[in-house]
């Protein structure tokens, strides 16, 4: 790629990892980091995730070819307003948000006509937060969901695709609406369920929890404020997924209450087979 200057707004785990990956894969590219905490920016500089820092978002994006928004979902729309006046002609703005309809609509509405917005959702990260956990290989072989619309610039879309591919990611395109519907089932509701499982169990039961329960509930360690914003931003789809889950649990409840061992085994085997198929497809 020919990117010479990239601005990363929000240098936590994802932003810091993007910076490290850019510095290892994009020779000679300047990486400007923005954040409201001086300590975080100093850590990012020390770790080599960015080459310089700014505490004013508008100044941070001046002259940048690509702007990567790595702040919580609720902060994305206000941040677009703050940076709009600083964008150079041809600048491309993308993000890492876990819900897409709101931010894509805001990006297409708020940016000046000479700049372009393309929604992104790199499916990488962990329950940990902070630039100290950043890794240059975080995105390697992971999937990035790109969410173009009828208004998306083909050239900007191509540049965003190439950017994430340069960082080692696989690319899939889908609409913002489809993204939010599908991610409610495989990301947003699962996070809430992990939290619910921990909340349901009493302390004495938790003391007996084995590796299976710990693995199942790992994502419940995520930041509550960040996930609150995601669940509320995508509330219609999350609520729809809760309804689907109720139906599945009702089926399970019926099988158990009837003592129907054959049907219950079939139900469990079917779920195991679907998971195995999912894993196999990922390995292709």
Structure description:
A six-stranded parallel sheet has the order 3-2-1-4-5-6. The protein has a three-stranded mixed sheet with strand order 7-8-9. The radius of gyration is 21 Å and the shape is elongated. It is built from twelve helices and nine strands. 54% of the residues lie in helices and 13% in strands. It is of the alpha/beta class. It starts with a strand and ends with a helix. The model has no long low-confidence stretch (mean pLDDT 95). Helix 5 (101-110) links the parallel strand 5 (92-95) and strand 6. Helix 4 (73-83) packs parallel to helix 5 and helix 7 crosses helix 11 (235-258).
Question: How do the helices and strands line up, and which of them pair or pack?
Answer:
Layout: E1 5-9, H1 13-25, E2 30-34, H2 38-47, E3 52-54, H3 57-61, E4 66-69, H4 73-83, E5 92-95, H5 101-110, E6 116-117, E7 119-122, E8 143-147, H6 154-166, E9 170-173, H7 176-200, H8 203-206, H9 211-216, H10 224-233, H11 235-258, H12 261-283
Parallel strand pairs: 1-2, 1-4, 2-3, 4-5, 5-6, 8-9
Antiparallel strand pairs: 7-8
Helix pairs in contact: 4-5, 7-11
Largest sheet: 6 strands, parallel
Subunit arrangement of the protein: single chain
Uncertain stretches:
none
CATH H-level superfamily title of the largest domain = NAD(P)-binding Rossmann-like Domain
Q: Kindly state the mean pLDDT as a whole number?
A: 95
The number of distinct helices, counting runs of at least 4 residues, comes to 12
Q: What percent of residues are in strands?
A: 5-15%
Strand arrangement across the biggest beta sheet: 3-2-1-4-5-6
What is the top-level CATH class of the largest domain?
A: Alpha Beta
Give the tally of structural domains. Answer: 2
Q: Structural class, from helix and strand content?
A: alpha/beta
For the termini, the CA-CA separation is: 27 Å
Task: Please state the second-level CATH architecture of the largest domain.
Answer: 3-Layer(aba) Sandwich
């Amino acid at each position: 790629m020919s990117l010479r200057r990239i601005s990363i707004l929000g240098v936590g785990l994802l932003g810091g990892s993007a910076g490290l990956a850019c510095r290892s894969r994009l020779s000679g590219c300047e990486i400007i980091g923005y954040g409201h905490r001086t300590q975080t920016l100093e850590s990012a500089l020390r770790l080599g995730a960015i080459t310089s820092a700014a505490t004013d978002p508008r100044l941070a994006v001046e002259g940048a070819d690509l702007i990567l928004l790595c702040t919580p979902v609720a902060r994305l729309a206000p941040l677009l307003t703050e940076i709009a006046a600083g964008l150079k002609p041809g600048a491309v703005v993308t993000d890492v948000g876990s819900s897409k309809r709101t931010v894509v609509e805001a990006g297409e509405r708020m940016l000046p006509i000479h700049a372009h917005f393309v929604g992104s959702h790199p499916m990488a990260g962990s329950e940990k937060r902070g630039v100290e956990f950043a890794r240059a290989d975080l995105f390697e072989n992971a999937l990035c969901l790109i969410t173009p619309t009828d208004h998306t610039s083909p050239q900007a879309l191509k540049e965003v695709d190439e950017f994430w591919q340069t960082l080692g990611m696989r690319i899939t395109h889908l609409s913002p609406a489809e993204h939010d519907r599908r991610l409610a089932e495989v990301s947003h509701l699962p996070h809430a369920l992990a939290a619910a499982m921990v909340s349901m169990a009493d302390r004495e039961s938790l003391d007996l929890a084995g590796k299976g329960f710990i693995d199942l509930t790992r994502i419940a360690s995520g930041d509550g404020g960040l996930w609150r914003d995601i669940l509320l931003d995508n509330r219609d789809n999350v609520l729809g997924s809760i309804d689907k889950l109720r139906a599945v649990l009702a089926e399970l409840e019926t099988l158990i209450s009837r003592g129907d061992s054959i049907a219950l085994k079939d139900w469990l085997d079917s779920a195991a087979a679907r998971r195995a198929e999912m894993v196999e497809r990922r390995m292709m």
